[in-house]
Specification:
This protein is an alpha/beta fold. The protein has helices at residues 16-25, 33-38, 56-69, 91-98, 101-106, 137-140, 163-166, 173-179, 182-185, 199-210, and strands at residues 43-48, 77-82, 108-111, 120-125, 132-136, 144-150, 153-154, 158-159, 215-221, 227-234. Helix 1 (16-25) packs across helix 3. The mean pLDDT is 96.
Length: 237
Amino acid sequence: ALTVVSKPAMPVLPDPETSVRLCLADAVASPGLLELASQANSACIAICDITRPVPNHLFLRPIIETLIQAGMPAAKITVLVATGLHRPNIGAELGELIGDSWVLDQVSVVNHDARNDDEHVDLGVTATRGTRVRLDRMFVEADLRIATGLVEPHFMAGYSGGRKVIAPGLAHAETITTFHSARFMADPQARNCNFDGNPLHEEQLQIVEMIDGALALNTVIDEQRNLSHVNFGEIVA
């Protein structure tokens, strides 16, 4: 006999598009996106790659429209696919990932390449564990750094979302392989749904500090990938 294991039923937002726009205006521990963008010249929006079912089609356009409304030129806005060490998403797959042809027409959409040394900034080492931190230059050097993604339990980082999109998502291969080494993976605190003493989570928070902070848009989805929750603001909060 087959047993189907699925998520319990979750509340879903009746109007996802409106919920996204409201959260961009009513940010957590941060001014709203329009105000932030009015004081910035460039933005980099990091998105998860095709291996994560993130509803990019719901929030990329509202984010980009808000940036443009604030006076930021579309040429100064980049959507960066946080591939980690996965292969790039190109062609029809990239279209599926973005989910909105308007986005592809308006701004530059680029795949992170973890093995291209020149495309990374060396930020030194983390204070606690001495992890060498090299991150994608496009993200580090943007005035507005926005990580987007999905919050769900993660077998090492406790939960996905927010800071995890930056590292390992936008990190150099050297940084990623350190994160996925036995030293981190064997730590009993590096487990599902745990942040307390989790070495991976602690390193990720230090990396956010090393780039002088970031913003995040986080989503939670149900079994059918409907939007259950969305928020935006300072990445740790």
